[in-house]
From TrEMBL:
Its cofactor is FMN. It comes from Helicobacter cinaedi. InterPro entries: NfsB-like (IPR033878), Nitroreductase (IPR029479), Nitroreductase-like (IPR000415). Residues 10-188 form the Nitroreductase domain. This is NAD(P)H-flavin oxidoreductase. The gene is frxA.
Length: 208
């Protein structure tokens, strides 16, 4: 079995981390770099990360995450924030995103037309639909980071059970600019992995 597939079998949703075991900074920096290099729709890179390392920061978050022990036992807790209205062109964000790729004004206008048309045609240009589309980009980044963490022998747990508005209030987020899409805990397991059950490939895959 190749190393990557071994890491896939290694990964599980770790419900309790060893709070005395910390991830070395250089290893966690690599995980962050993998996230930075992950793909996003239209290359917009709409995800921002808030990393909680201190016991105080994690303790403040835990009550808003249904009091789940992963929050305070993990080495690092990463909050994935997703940009909102700035993603809809024309905006200063989309302008800077385009110009850093050394496109001229004509190319920027073409990009705005293409992106704006895509969002409007699918009803993704405002409100909950925009938030949902932006959050999907955060999940792509999180998946890359979790996969690489597993490759390094680091455990993870996706956290979707949290009080979204309260978490955003805790960090002073303006929901028209940024929203919390996902929380992921990183650390080392505090107990052995439980058996994992998945449907078979025959049930999963259909060929035409």
């Amino acid at each position: 079995m190749n190393k990557f597939l071994e890491s896939v079998y290694f990964r599980h949703s770790c419900k309790l981390f060893d709070e005395n075991k910390k991830i070395p900074k250089e290893m966690f920096d690599e995980i962050l770099e993998v996230g930075r290099l992950s793909p996003s729709s239209f290359g917009l890179e709409p995800t921002r990360l808030l990393v909680l390392r201190s016991d105080e920061a994690k303790a403040a978050l835990r009550p808003l995450c249904w009091n789940q022990p992963q929050i305070t036992t993990a080495s690092e807790v990463v909050i994935f924030k997703s940009l909102q209205n700035d993603l809809v062109p024309p905006s200063e964000y989309t302008k800077q995103n385009t110009f850093r790729r050394k496109m001229d004004l004509g190319a920027y206008q073409a990009f705005c037309d293409r992106l704006g048309g895509y969002l409007k045609e699918r009803g993704l240009d405002s409100g909950e639909s925009l938030a949902h589309w932006s959050s999907k980009q955060a999940y792509i980044m999180a998946t890359y980071m979790v996969a690489y963490a597993s490759f390094l022998g680091i455990d993870t747990c996706y956290i979707e059970g949290y009080e979204k508005k309260e978490v955003e209030k805790l960090y002073g987020l303006d929901p028209f600019k940024e929203q919390v899409s996902l929380i992921v805990c990183f650390g080392y397991r505090g107990k052995e992995q439980q058996p994992r059950y998945r449907i078979s490939l025959d049930d999963l895959v259909e060929y035409k």
